[in-house]
Amino acid sequence: MQPSILHERNYLTYLCGSLFSTQGVWIQRMTLGWKMWDMTHSETWLGLLAFLMFFPVVLVGPLFGVLVDRINRRRAAVVISLVLSSLGGGLAVLVGAGLIEPLGVLLFALVIGMTNSAYQAVRLSLVPELVSVANMSRAVAINAILFNSARFIGPMIAGVLINLYGGAAALAVSGACYLPLTLVLLCLKLDEQARRDARGPQRRFLADLLAGVRYARSEALIVRLLLVICCSAILGRGLLEILPAAVDVLYSRGVEALAMLTSAAGLGSIVAGLILSALPRARLLSALRLAAIGAGVVLVLFGLNARFEAGLALVMLLSFCATVCGVATQSLIQVSLDGAYRGRVMSLWGALNVGGGAVGGLLFGLLTEHGGYGLTLVLLGALNVLLAGYATRGLAALASRQDSQ
């Protein structure tokens, strides 16, 4: 009989801290996007902001992946959460004093992006230590529900704070949201000795990094799943990174409409997480294929639509598809890889997932500013359908072969 995830004490403790930190992520993300649009009214600047916040994970994420296979992950998570809290507080002071310019926002975005790269590598390796293998896919789905519940609630909180008290107050709250996570991390009890015993031989840093890449390349299922998440992140999520511009240009609306669109995206992700938390692993591959291709169809429909109400529904569907792709690929990789390479392989997944979103935000920003929304979304949506169809073809056979080994 499969143990209930409600009996995973360490995991539930960690969730309590994440309830707050994930709110901070979305409050900060929306506030910075709105601040940048307010200062520049440029889709390119917005895309560049998303790029700098998320692309660093591509460059330094794999390096952090090597580190987390060597160090105490709980202590690293504590330090990183304190740094993220300090960055939010520093931004709040500068915005409140009127000392921040677009280039300054980009600089902070870069530092936040690099710090988040470190935290993502730690988080992706830490969660499997908090939950049993039998509950791994449920834990990943619950994490997605939690993150995207914040995506639903956080923008609404940010919208209220910006309207009533200004961007500085919203950023201050985002920084404070990391403090409960720090306290929770200090309370976790992990078996570090067991993890050290399970770790493979330690080589030089670069050799360890290359060993992780070689391992990932040697597993056909992992390679294909990484390709799926790359396609989903760049083409399936790129539009979601430039919503502040879309609200103004397409619908001539303000921060309240942005909060509604961002919350609609969060709602779509919550529904996806709830469905996936109850879905047997055998059905994950079918759901992944439908979602990966479906995201492209939704983009095409968005490009042909001009009504705000329809836009809300389409953004919700797009986010639903993106979440299915993220949760399914992460779950399938987590349960199929060798634990000795977990930090390095999952950092590659994280680099493609987060870095792909950064590239997508920049791509969508450049193309929509210079080529218009309609044509850009139709063309990129069609490209997404083609690439996703190829990437998900034959996945079931690869998974079956992996299980039989």
From TrEMBL:
Membrane topology: Multi-pass membrane protein
Keyword Ribosomal protein belongs to the record: no
Main location group: membrane
Residues passing through the membrane, by range: 12-32, 44-64, 76-97, 103-119, 140-162, 168-188, 221-240, 260-279, 286-304, 310-333, 345-367, 373-392
Keyword flag NADP: no
PROSITE patterns xrefs: MFS
Highest taxon listed in the record's lineage: Bacteria
Coiled coil: none
GO CC terms of this entry: plasma membrane
Localisation per UniProt entry: Cell membrane
Keyword field: Cell membrane, Membrane, Transmembrane, Transmembrane helix, Transport
GO molecular function, one term: transmembrane transporter activity
One family name in Pfam for this protein: MFS_3
Domain Major facilitator superfamily (MFS) profile: 1-399
Entry protein name: Major facilitator superfamily (MFS) profile domain-containing protein
Species, as recorded: Marinobacterium aestuarii
